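Board notes (copied after class):
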Amino acid sequence: MDEFPKNCHAFHPKDPPYGTLNYDIGALNKYQKIRLNLRRTTERNENELYLKLHPEIKGLISVLLRYVLLHRQPSTDPRETIGEFFDRPRREIVVDLLEYFLHGEEAFESENVLLRI
């Protein structure tokens, strides 16, 4: 069976959002809820715009996920594999990013389809 870290448990839909230990939506009045939802929407839109303006971030995430899927053993913690990825020499990471940008997203996506099978 999969084991969870000591301070982690399986996801449950009624759990409060991550980072909000004392989350109580009932504590907000109607106006505050509207403002909170508006702020969330604005923040999400700003994040999407930022990611569109910085394709290198999408590239780095794609390269990182590909590395994790190809190199992670079932018994290892994904955080260890991510640490190994960033412990590599910088030039190796740059080469992976350049391959991603030169060959295009389609090449990576076709390889990722093979990983799912």
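Comment from the instructor: The CA atoms of residues 4 and 10 lie 8 Å apart. The chain is about 65% helix and 0% strand.
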